[in-house]
Amino acid sequence: MKQIKLGLSAWRMGYHIAAWRHPSVQPDGSMDLSHFKAVAQAAERYRFDLIFMPDELAIRGEDNPEGARSRGSHVAELEPITLLSALAALTQHVGLVSTGSTTYAEPYNTARQFLSLDHLSNGRAGWNVVTSWGKEDALNFGHLAAPDYNLRYERASEFVDVVRGLWNSWDADAFLRDKESGLFFDPQKMHVLDHKGDHFNVRGPLHMARSPQGEPVIFFAGDSEAGRDVAARAADVVFTAKQTLEDAQAFYASVKGRLAANGRTEDELLIMPGLMPIVGRTREEAEAKHEALQNLIDPLIGLASLYDRLGDLSDYDLDGPVPEPKDPAFRSRAEVIYKLAQKEGYTIRQLYMALASGRGHRVVIGTAEDVADAMQEWQEGRAADGFNIIPTHLPEALDDFGTLVIPELQRRGLVRTEYDGTSLRDNLGLPKRGL
Ligand SMILES: Cc1cc2nc3c(=O)[nH]c(=O)nc-3n(C[C@H](O)[C@H](O)[C@H](O)COP(=O)(O)O)c2cc1C
């Protein structure tokens, strides 16, 4: 039976927008190595294939309505590659995947950072390629806005090629380090990239030995046609956000369908949608856990989450109806959620609560069997090869998943009970890679 791949998105103190206020959560956890150590070691105890770090290059979002920003926890966090390098020394098996932008970095630096993480962890590193869309990110790198969409993807595509080229600077057996003869490496086994392209000129070679797993694993998070093309050509794993089985199946078929044209087989690229499980021993208990978190959402934060689509609603009654968007600046973006509010009869408070939980990812609230069924259905239905688990709050929601759902998945033979390799590629069942 094919096994379900499992990532844990170990972001901050969890994904729920009120996570930091939960009684079990250490509120300065996102700045504290001991918080991440506990999370990473628990992920390893539950036999996750990898932990995954999203990243942003700025404090995103305006302070709208005024005062909302000072109530959000996203303003203080550690740089993820540095953090994962520390976690490499505190774990043995779990993969360590960080997001890295192709818009605000140079390929030589990125190649070097991820390959260093790979060596420090004995072959457990992965790079989640993103193109960074935020205006706030742009402002920190000398731009007034994020570069044009097509330009970002052209650059991303070339960027990934350069990084992979640099990772292939040396054959695996290039370094002789022969004290007797005095020969440190075999010059035949060193490859100078000499890349000259539209966006980059990079000579190489990278001054670092080849990865213990051939190349670090490449993740790609992007949904557009351009994104799917780059993924099918260069990625090992695609991280995506899909709500329904039909949408996930269509995405799966679309990305896998592009592999043959790139000379690749279906098994060489894994698709892992995000999944937020809220697990209880009974469905009532799971619902109660969800509600407890929802009740912690500060109204200003709730309103801020609606701001970019509905504007400032702070003068309206939270428990009254959602007003029709009048400002033309918001009208086009507001339509979907305004219609949702009307259809469901949501108040403003109910609307932000309904949108708050999964940040666009699928949310499953129920027992271990419910969550395992939901995962199995998508895997068997060719909608997913695995899941990036998006915990509401850390580490408690991870422990709920690990102690309740993992044993159920193991009982069904859907996930491993022991690690059987040493590298992230081994964990994911991916072949060693090289150009
Ligand atoms: C599931 C998922 C996760 C993402 N994670 C990040 C992230 O951590 N940091 C970031 O800057 N962008 C992230 N992105 C944004 C993408 O890199 C990209 O800029 C955006 O999705 C627009 O491209 P697209 O239309 O191809 O999806 C993510 C996108 C998706 C779909």
TrEMBL record:
Transmembrane segments: none annotated. PANTHER family: ALKANESULFONATE MONOOXYGENASE-RELATED (PTHR30011), C2H2 FINGER DOMAIN TRANSCRIPTION FACTOR (EUROFUNG)-RELATED (PTHR30011:SF16). This is LLM class flavin-dependent oxidoreductase. NCBIfam families: FMN_nitrolo. FMN binds at D55, T99, Y153, S224. One of its GO terms (molecular function) is monooxygenase activity. It comes from the Bacteria. Residues 20-382 form the Luciferase-like domain. InterPro entries: Diverse_substr_monoxygenases, Luciferase-like_dom, Luciferase-like_sf, NTA_MOA. Pfam families: Bac_luciferase (PF00296). It comes from Microbaculum marinisediminis. Belongs to the NtaA/SnaA/DszA monooxygenase family. Keywords: Flavoprotein, FMN, Monooxygenase, Oxidoreductase.
